[in-house]
Write a structure and sequence with these properties.
Elements: E1 2-3, E2 9-10, H1 17-34, H2 55-60, H3 69-84, H4 87-90, E3 93-95, E4 104-106, E5 120-121, E6 125-126, H5 173-176, H6 182-185, H7 194-200, E7 203-207, E8 213-217, H8 221-226, H9 234-241, H10 270-273, H11 278-281, H12 307-311, H13 318-327, H14 333-337, E9 351-360, E10 365-369, E11 390-394, E12 398-400, H15 414-419, E13 427-437, E14 447-461, E15 466-467, H16 472-478, H17 481-492, E16 500-509, H18 523-527, H19 544-572
Helix pairs in contact: 1-13, 1-19, 16-17
Length: 573
């Protein structure tokens, strides 16, 4: 050491100061501007679409009309049986990741949800399954639209891959003949299931001689024979999943028509743009598709690959990449690489109000009311684009409201204050969390994941302590949501006093819509002193992440200033 003229102590760093300063500055710059990046990404070879011409098979069997799996079962009985037992047909599977309800049979056949109420009452009695919904009432000036087909045929239009019969646990011949094989195995340029098929006129709903509703395919057997696929393409899947919830991209975050067709851009989804198909990740075994999202109910056998299966455990390179790999093991890849929801052409539905309705003349039907969050106006269908996700811990288990168990709405607390909505017509009795991830900072199995929060005002029975089913077709045809709830109450026995509502809340896991690496979140997006993206308090960190990162950013200039000062002192000594 040496003593300066002012009596202070100056550390004799000599020739090492420039090297020390350069290392510190390089590290700081690496964090701030992101020196380095992704390692070499795995090459993906898009698989060719394979057609299997069935012309000779159909001719030999004298098949002249497609009637669902009844047409296919003679040659493909094992496959038909597999589909019959799958979630896609049964709308139910055994759930082993629901807290306090492990091992129960549950799914879309049993649930009540924020998008369409319930399809069946207790999994058996149809409430909103199949039909032909026509407009019965219109506002002044639109009377000429009364009697028009609304384009809606009930929840069966998307839920399930059937030809119209409600699914049954028992595999009768009628049930085994009720599967629409073309939903997954027809070239999407010729035939699509779901709303697209209805809109294109290749699929419609009709009644048989006994008055039973069913779907029929409006294509000749020759066209069908030449356009059968060996493996489903993404567009077969998206025909339903991209328009679930009642329209394009309303429901699933970043599963939208943006992903359909051959011109998907990297800016919306790098995986689909590279040629991946849905079945590349949701790997099918025995016609079962594994999924693990917090808010879904298909829990079939099989593993959904993790990001590291393709990208490795240390996917980032350089100084910045080392920092990411070393200190972000508790952050899911989706958190940084999917910075926004609905960042493409189609907005998404974040909230809706089933206490009122809005007329959509271009659709020739009424729709649930979606209040503008800023003005409260309900005279237009309000949707959101470029939605910043909500972040929460998820350890693989979840909190699910199992319908129709009695439930008391929350009337206080953070979730009540944050998510409560006032009905347009009626009184809010509180909040019920419908689906939520479980985990915490102290849970070693948990990671921080992104979620879309969806809220809906729905009718609540103060007598039965549960949500009231709605006859959704009545609401779409008449605009009278109160009548629709009363009809649902009458059909199921769930008592309702008009005007009593609650808000139900669903955390919807964000797994799709990965953007290019250069659009991933950066340090300051989450750790900046003024950033609002991460609720560090709710995540259990308090202000530590902001203070710590601010120290890292501010540290090098302070050290540099100190080094200059010490150098100056040394020069004077």
């Amino acid at each position: 050491m040496s003593t300066g003229s002012g009596g202070g102590v100056v550390v004799g760093v000599g020739k090492w100061w420039p090297a020390i300063i350069l290392v510190i500055m390089a590290f700081a710059v690496g964090l701030i501007v992101g020196l380095g990046g992704e390692k070499g990404l795995p090459k993906y070879e898009a698989k060719p679409v394979q057609h299997v011409d069935h012309s000779s098979f159909f001719a030999e069997a004298n098949i002249t009309k497609y009637e669902g799996s009844k047409t296919c079962i003679k040659c493909h009985r094992d496959e038909v049986v597999e589909v019959f037992h799958s979630y896609h047909y049964q709308l139910a599977s055994v759930q082993n990741d629901i807290a306090d309800h492990q091992g129960i049979l549950y799914g879309g056949r049993f649930t009540y949800n924020d998008f369409c109420g319930c399809i069946f009452w207790r999994g058996e009695k149809p409430v909103n399954w199949i039909g032909y919904v026509v407009l019965k009432k219109a506002p002044s000036g639109y009377e000429d639209l009364v009697g028009s087909f609304t384009g809606l045929t009930g929840c069966s239009m998307c839920h399930g891959v059937g030809m119209g019969l409600p699914p049954s646990p028992e595999p009768s011949e009628a049930q085994l003949g009720n599967i629409d094989c073309l939903a997954c195995h027809a070239d999407p340029g010729v035939y699509l299931s779901g709303p697209f098929g209805i809109a294109k006129g290749v699929r419609n709903v009709t009644r048989d001689e006994q008055g039973v509703w069913h779907y029929e395919v409006k294509l000749s057997i020759d066209v069908i024979a030449k356009n059968i696929l060996r493996t489903p393409t993404k567009d077969n899947c998206l025909a339903c999943h991209a328009v679930s919830g009642g329209g394009p991209h309303l429901k699933r975050p970043n599963l939208s028509p943006d992903l359909m067709g051959s011109k998907v851009t990297e800016d919306f989804d790098v995986h689909i743009a590279a040629g991946l198909q849905c079945v590349d990740c949701h790997r099918v075994e025995d016609h079962r598709f594994p999924t693990r999202s917090v808010d879904t109910f298909s829990r079939e056998e099989g593993q959904v690959p993790s990001c590291s299966d393709c990208h490795g455990e240390d996917p980032h390179s350089g100084v910045y990449g080392w920092f990411l790999n070393r200190f972000h093991g508790r952050v899911a890849c989706q958190t940084c690489h999917i910075p926004l929801i609905a960042h493409g052409k189609y907005p998404t539905d974040t909230h809706r109000d089933w206490s009122a309705s809005t007329f959509l003349p271009e659709k020739k039907r009424w729709k649930f009311s979606i209040p503008d969050p800023e003005t409260g106006a309900v005279d237009r269908w309000y949707l959101d684009s470029n939605v910043v996700p909500v972040y929460a811990w998820y350890n693989g288990t979840r909190q699910i409201y199992v319908y129709p168990e009695p439930v008391e709405p929350l009337k206080e607390g953070p979730e009540y204050e944050k998510y409560r909505m006032e009905p347009v017509n009626g009184e809010s009795l509180g909040v019920v969390v419908y689906a939520k991830p479980l985990g915490s900072r102290g849970d070693p199995n948990a990671k921080i994941y992104p979620f879309k929060i969806h809220r809906a005002v729905v009718a609540y029975s103060t007598l039965n302590k549960t949500m009231v089913p709605m006859k959704v077709g009545v609401a779409f045809a008449t605009g009278n949501t109160t009548l629709a709830y009363l009809k649902g109450s009458e059909a199921t026995g769930v008592k309702w006093t008009p005007g009593t509502y609650i808000t139900i809340v669903r955390y919807m896991q964000v797994n799709h819509g990965v953007q290019p690496a250069e659009k991933a979140l950066h340090c300051l997006d989450c750790h900046g002193v003024t950033t609002k993206r991460m609720d560090w308090q709710a995540l259990g960190y308090g202000i530590y992440p902001k203070v710590a990162f601010a120290s890292i950013v501010a540290g090098p200039p302070i050290i540099l200033a100190l080094a200059v000062y010490l150098w100056w002192r040394r020069r004077r000594a």
